[in-house]
């Protein structure tokens, strides 16, 4: 029986499903360190990960490894050049989390705009003694301008929500989306600089790559309106968190909502010192239905990729399908 490693705690019933096909080594405890991950992958044919870094040295230490299924859409934890050199398949879990992630991004944006976390902390501290006309004045979402950077599946889901709020939608992407999609979403393609100048609410939903590192830094924050908000539900590293702290502290922008951070689960401690930021621990896809769908899609990818004979199938969501059918090198 082929062997797989499940590197993180996941739903036990998904483990039971995988055990019908594989000899499963399940890490149902803390995150594995790099050395322990490599050690436990040494005799495995496949793995299910959730953000665990897998690079050239890890692949070299696992000569039998044929597929690594990431329980996430983003796969910046994979060194895909190393995967391709070794003819190891990587897979991810797109589409199943689009709507729940867009819901959460919308909630985070609104919480930042309306100062929900800031006012909640103030109330819990016992400061609320009377109503005041100027208490925690925030910015409107209805009728404002939404700027989406990264008009993929989740970006488009956000734009669909904007229609119900009578918002103007502008977007920037590596490439312009089809005219039909623009028309359906009533979305206008603009440069990143124009988006930052015009948008009342900027939401980041682009993938993390070396080219998108610090897409938003001090220079970009300086272009934004002082009344604008910034929401990041993409990946840490897309925003220069230190520059954001300074912009928030100086009120060069009104507020921010962050679900992802540079170096997470650690985060810049200065983020905890500014009141006008909403902070959540990378939970944009965290509904039970969505996380189950992600786990099962990762399992589907493993079962298909490691199938033999009549069980062999094309995995549902390969990242580098060009290696399919090739052996390890």
TrEMBL record:
Start and end residues of each stretch annotated as Disordered: 308-329
Cited InterPro entries: D-isomer_2-hydroxyacid_DH, D-isomer_2_OHA_DH_cat_dom, D-isomer_DH_CS1, D-isomer_DH_NAD-bd, NAD(P)-bd_dom_sf
Keyword Oxidoreductase: yes
Membrane-crossing segments per the record: none
Keyword Transmembrane helix: no
Domain D-isomer specific 2-hydroxyacid dehydrogenase catalytic: 4-310
Organismal lineage: Bacteria, Pseudomonadati, Pseudomonadota, Betaproteobacteria, Burkholderiales
Homology family: Belongs to the D-isomer specific 2-hydroxyacid dehydrogenase family.
PANTHER family in alphabetical order: 2-HYDROXYACID DEHYDROGENASE-RELATED, GLYOXYLATE_HYDROXYPYRUVATE REDUCTASE B
Pfam families the record matches: 2-Hacid_dh, 2-Hacid_dh_C
One GO MF term attached to the UniProt entry: glyoxylate reductase (NADPH) activity
EC number: 1.1.1.79
Superkingdom per UniProt: Bacteria
UniProt KW keywords: Oxidoreductase
Annotated organism of origin: Paraburkholderia gardini
Domain D-isomer specific 2-hydroxyacid dehydrogenase NAD-binding: 107-284
UniProt-recorded name of the protein: Glyoxylate/hydroxypyruvate reductase B
């Amino acid at each position: 029986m082929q062997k797989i490693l499940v590197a993180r705690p996941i739903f036990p019933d998904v483990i039971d499903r995988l055990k019908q096909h594989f000899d499963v080594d399940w890490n149902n405890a803390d995150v594995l360190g790099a050395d322990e991950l490599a050690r436990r992958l040494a005799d495995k044919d496949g793995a299910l990960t959730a953000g665990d870094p897998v690079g050239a040295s890890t692949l070299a230490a696992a000569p039998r490894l044929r597929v690594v299924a990431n329980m996430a859409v983003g796969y910046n934890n994979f060194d895909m050049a190393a995967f391709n050199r070794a003819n190891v398949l990587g897979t991810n879990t797109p589409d199943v989390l689009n709507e729940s992630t867009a819901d959460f991004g919308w909630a985070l944006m609104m919480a930042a705009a309306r100062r929900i976390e800031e006012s909640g902390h103030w109330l819990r501290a016992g400061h609320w003694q009377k109503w005041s006309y100027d208490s925690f004045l925030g910015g409107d979402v209805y009728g404002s301008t939404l700027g989406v950077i990264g008009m993929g599946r989740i970006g488009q889901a956000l734009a669909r929500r904007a229609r119900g709020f009578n918002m103007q939608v502008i977007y920037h992407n590596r490439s312009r989306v089809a005219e039909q999609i623009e028309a359906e979403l009533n979305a206008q393609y603009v440069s990143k600089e124009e988006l930052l100048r015009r948008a009342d609410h900027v939401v980041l939903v682009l993938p993390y790559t070396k080219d998108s590192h610090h897409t938003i830094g001090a220079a970009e924050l300086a272009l934004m309106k002082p009344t604008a908000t910034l929401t990041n539900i993409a990946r840490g590293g897309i925003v220069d968190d230190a520059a954001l702290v300074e912009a928030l502290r100086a009120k060069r922008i009104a507020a921010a909502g962050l679900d992802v951070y540079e170096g997470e689960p650690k985060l810049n401690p200065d983020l905890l010192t500014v009141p006008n930021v909403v902070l959540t621990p990378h939970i944009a896809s965290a509904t039970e239905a969505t996380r189950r769908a992600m786990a099962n899609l990762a399992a589907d990818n493993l079962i298909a990729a490691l199938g033999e004979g009549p069980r062999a199938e094309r995995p549902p969501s390969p990242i580098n399908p060009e290696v399919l059918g090739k052996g390890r090198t």
